[in-house]
Amino acid sequence: YDGCCHVLTHHTNGWEVYTRRMDKVTTKFPELIDQLNQLKQFGPGTIIVGELICLKPNGVDDFKSISRFCRSDPDEARRLVTHGDIHEPIFIMFDALFHNGKDLSNKTYDERSKLLKTLLPLQQVIDYELATSEKPFYTNKFRIVSVDYFDLAPDTWEAFAKEKGWEGFVVTDGSSKPGNKFYSFNGKANR
Questions:
Q1: Count of C-beta atoms within a 10 Å radius of residue 51
Q2: pLDDT tens digits, 148-179
């Protein structure tokens, strides 16, 4: 996904949204906060890592829009959405570090990802035909989804990524614990 990494933290007094540099940006995301409050499986003491993205009408990531949204002050970010300049961002959950007050650092990625799989993956809520005024491209009102999982072998990764038009992908070892065995492959030079 071509977006901006964010961390969601559920404190006893509610949800907060932080950038990857830990700047608090909660006020930009009132819809996200409302929807997080509906996720009863993620109580206080939960920390989730993911990517905020915007999508173009054809369902392709729109980095320019999410970058514009994330770099704007809260009032301007909300204005961009309400005036239709960009779509409301979608949060894609990648990992859970704490769940309901329990430290998950001793759990494998396969164990942690079970929490994320309680949500629909992004690919199941996008209609990849071009949007019309009667038919939105994003078919889910809920803007929090799970990362998409693909079971691929090393000899099929590259062809699959090219077929999808991806510039890169992340390979995980399901038996890994946080900080170990995540591999990023991308197609951009000098990255």
A1: 21
A2: 777 777 788 778 877 876 666 666 777 777 66
**Which structure tokens are listed for 33?**
């906060």
DSSP letter at 159 equals H
* Cα 163 versus chain centre, distance: 22
- Dist. CA 17–CA 11, nearest whole Å: 11
Q: Cα–Cα distance between 127 and 138 in angstroms, integer?
A: 6
- Coil, strand, or helix at residue 67? helix
Question: Which position has the token pair 């699959």?
Answer: 160
In this structure, the strands spanning 90-99 and 144-146 are parallel
Q: Where are the beta strands (DSSP E) in the chain?
A: 4-11, 14-19, 46-53, 90-99, 102-103, 144-146, 168-172, 182-186
User: What single-letter amino acid sits at 27?
Assistant: T
Closest by Cα among 50, 37, 38, 43 to 8: 50
Asked if residue 2 lies in contact with residue 55, where contact means CB atoms within 8 angstroms, the answer is no
Give CA–CA dist 54/52, Å, rounded.
7
* pLDDT tens for each residue of 96-147: 889 999 999 888 888 888 888 877 655 555 554 555 545 555 555 667 887 7
